[in-house]
Amino acid sequence: MHLQALELVKQLWEQVLLLDDYKIGELLRKPSRLLFTAAELGNVEFIKVLIQKYPDLIWKVDDHSRSIFHIAVLHRQENIFNLIHEIGAHKDLIAAYEDENNNNMLHLAGKLAHPDRVKIDSGVALQLRRELHWFKEVEKVVQPSYRETKNSEGRTPHILFLEEHRRLVREGEKWMKDTASSCMVVATLIATVMFAAAFTVPGGNNNLTGKPVFLHHWSFLVFAISDALALFCSATSILIFLSILTSRYAVEDFLHSLPNRLIIGLATLFISIATMMAAFGATLFIVLSNEFAWIAIPIAIVACVPVTLFPLLQFPLLSDMISHL
Predict the structure, then answer these.
(1) Residue 85 CA to its chain's centroid (Å)
(2) Number of folded domains that form the chain
(3) Which of 141, 164, 187 finishes a domain?
(4) Residue 44 neighbours by CB under 8 Å, 6+ apart
(5) Residues pairing with 205 in the sheet
(6) Three-state secondary structure along 9-75?
(7) CATH number for the domain including 208?
(8) Quick one: 55 and 181 in the same domain?
(9) First to last CA, the chain
(10) 164, 179, 204 — which closes off a domain?
(11) How many angstroms separate the CA atoms of 254 and 162, rounded?
């Protein structure tokens, strides 16, 4: 159906091009502005068909003196905006367009996106990061002088961005602190338990030598390595989350610094949980190795459940953070 609809557009457009320029403009303008509606909705294939046959459409503007690329910037339509790189030297001329309020393309990137576009990412901090990424990408297209251009209200694009996203910055800081605080509690508990387990050797010590009774068993080696890794990773996770809590929370920090710290903190927290359960399973093998070894196997399998649940539950958050690295 999609391919058939696209072919139908091509056939209809070829018939429209037989008309003169005035009638073509009227057809695109009434009953609705098809070209700009397509740009707003991100229908890149429709726009490609029209522009390939009639390149002059890139110069058309709507009632607010905005081209399709300005509409794409305002509504965060990446596929439409990327077409600007295919028009060569004309890119600078179109980027110079200003709307009725003297907003250039970078001003429009500084405006807060529609809630439907903002909520693509999970977590307010990641939503703010997406907005920052978009602003930086548009900034690469416009001339450097446009970054300091003021609109009719006397605002530069950067100032407009800060004002439009003030609420998002405030909520992003709260979300980041709440997430870091919750994870830090878990990491602290794991570090406390693993530190105590290091001095409580499973199976006890030899009364003569003071060495662990099961020192030369493979399960004891697994316990020792897992306990050490859990302790080190949980301690690292605590420090990472502590650095998040004490951050200055400038707007630029949400672009790379804070998300990267959160990724590292969640990764080390997951490793500490996994190694903690491995140490637990190894301890069961040591304690029950003689008569009830068969019990340790199903218990160790069940211990894998929380290790599996953590990445599954946190996958949407982690995927959103990693996707924009």
Answers:
(1) 24
(2) 2
(3) 164
(4) 77, 79, 80, 83
(5) 212
(6) HHHHHHHHCCCCHHHHHHHHHCCCCHHHHHHHHCCHHHHHHHHHHCHHHHHCCCCCCCCHHHHHHHC
(7) 1.20.140
(8) no
(9) 36
(10) 164
(11) 13
Residues 129 and 257 in one domain: no
Q: Which pLDDT tens digits describe the chain residue by residue (325 residues)?
A: 778 888 888 888 888 887 887 787 777 776 557 888 888 888 888 888 888 888 888 888 888 888 889 999 999 998 888 888 887 778 888 888 888 889 999 999 999 988 888 877 777 888 898 899 999 999 988 888 888 999 999 999 999 999 999 999 999 999 999 999 999 999 999 999 999 888 777 665 665 565 666 666 777 788 889 999 999 999 999 999 999 999 989 998 998 899 889 989 988 998 998 898 888 888 877 777 666 666 767 776 777 777 777 777 776 666 666 766 5
CATH of the domain at 98: 1.25.40.20
What is the phi-psi region of residue 154: left when phi exceeds 0, alpha when psi lies from -120 to 50, beta otherwise? left
Round to whole Å and give the CA distance between 167 and 175.
Answer: 12
Range of the domain at 138: 2-164
